[in-house]
């Protein structure tokens, strides 16, 4: 179905001739395939919906988009970035997106709270000619283009490291993120398969809600129940807390910890290296939102994704890199001056994003 742009709607209000002209120039209705042309000419207005603010990662994500947007604005490519960011549930995020629709944005970048529950509001945006890009975790709606890392692959890397460390028959506990969250579920499904295939025993799974203090308390509780555990697999946003719990129990030399590519954890890791502590941190880039902004500009300019660049409605961008004992000093030397909340990052350049298109 043709997707009338925001400028189509403005023209329609002026009279039948504007409607006719806009209809003649309307784009394709497929995800990532519409927009562009004379009916969505520069400058573009971009919306950003973020439904979780309890993580420093999300703050860095928003700030990264704002910085990249400012560069585009200086060039006249965009005019306004409308940010809807609050700690809210699915219904609250639906209202965020409706607010952006009412602001007549050309594209929406959304970090979704649900894989499926936002489908109806995504359809509303699509029917208004708005291009929608999901970041951080993929959604199923065909009205959306997912621009994400492969969360399953992200989890497999650290799970395989931990499985190798504890060996077949090793006992581990797990500190996951937020139960039911798309990224959390995709990660744990992949990690669980790694542990099953490697013969690693998962004694217990608990939720740390991607929060360092919660992660520390959860790990403290797990250690009280499983004092002889061999390792712990955790996601980003909690590894620093997990480390402190293991350290307080005096077991850093006995319990293997999958870590995170954040400065706070790396600072603890660096301090314990002299005692033989090793870990791994897979980068989960807040800059994925910047990659999506570059994609959005290309789509709004009327470009089509190149053959083979999409899988369904998903564009997978590369995981930037993994920090391990072999390259720790290189990465630590680059970020040691950042705050503990800083996540090691990476995003597509404009040229790299453009390479995804015809």
UniProtKB/TrEMBL annotation:
Residues 46-303 form the Periplasmic binding protein domain. Residues 1-31 form the signal peptide. Its main location: other. It is found in: Cell envelope. It comes from the Bacteria. Keywords: Signal. Pfam families: Peripla_BP_4. InterPro entries: Bact_Solute-Bind_Prot2 (IPR050555), Peripla_BP_I (IPR028082), SBP_2_dom (IPR025997). CDD domains: PBP1_ABC_sugar_binding-like. One of its GO terms (molecular function) is carbohydrate binding. PANTHER family: D-XYLOSE-BINDING PERIPLASMIC PROTEIN. This is Periplasmic binding protein domain-containing protein.
């Amino acid at each position: 179905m043709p997707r009338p742009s925001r400028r189509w709607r403005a023209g329609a209000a002026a009279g039948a001739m504007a409607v006719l002209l806009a209809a003649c120039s309307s784009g394709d209705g497929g995800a990532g395939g519409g927009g562009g042309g004379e009916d969505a000419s520069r400058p573009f207005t971009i919306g950003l919906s973020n439904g979780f603010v309890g993580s420093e990662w999300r703050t860095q994500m928003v700030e990264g988009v704002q910085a990249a947007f400012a560069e585009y604005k200086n060039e006249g490519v965009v005019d306004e970035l409308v940010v809807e960011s609050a700690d809210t549930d699915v219904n609250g995020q639906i209202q965020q997106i409706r607010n952006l629709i009412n602001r007549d944005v050309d594209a929406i970048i959304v970090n979704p709270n649900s894989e499926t529950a936002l489908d109806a509001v995504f359809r509303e945006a699509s029917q208004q000619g708005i291009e929608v890009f999901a970041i951080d975790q993929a959604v199923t709606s065909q009205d959306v283009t997912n621009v994400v890392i492969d969360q399953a692959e992200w989890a497999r890397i650290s799970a395989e490291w931990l499985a190798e460390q504890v060996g077949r028959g090793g006992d581990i506990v797990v500190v996951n993120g937020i139960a039911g969250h798309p990224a959390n579920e995709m990660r744990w499904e992949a990690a669980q398969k790694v542990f099953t295939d490697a013969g690693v025993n998962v004694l217990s799974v608990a939720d740390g809600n991607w929060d360092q203090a919660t992660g520390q308390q959860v790990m403290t509780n797990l250690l009280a129940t499983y004092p002889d555990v061999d390792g712990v697999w955790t996601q980003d946003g909690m590894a620093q807390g997990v480390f402190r719990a293991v350290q307080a129990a005096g077991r850093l030399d006995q319990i293997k910890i999958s870590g995170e590519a954040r400065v706070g954890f790396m600072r603890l890791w660096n301090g314990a290296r002299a005692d033989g502590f090793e870990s791994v941190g897979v980068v989960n880039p807040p800059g994925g939102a910047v990659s999506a902004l570059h994609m959005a500009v290309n789509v709004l300019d009327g470009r089509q994704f190149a053959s083979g660049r999409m899988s369904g409605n998903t564009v997978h961008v590369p995981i930037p890199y993994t920090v391990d004992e072999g390259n720790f000093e290189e990465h630590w030397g680059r970020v040691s001056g950042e705050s503990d909340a800083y996540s090691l990052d990476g995003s597509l350049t404009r040229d790299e994003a453009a390479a995804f298109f015809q």
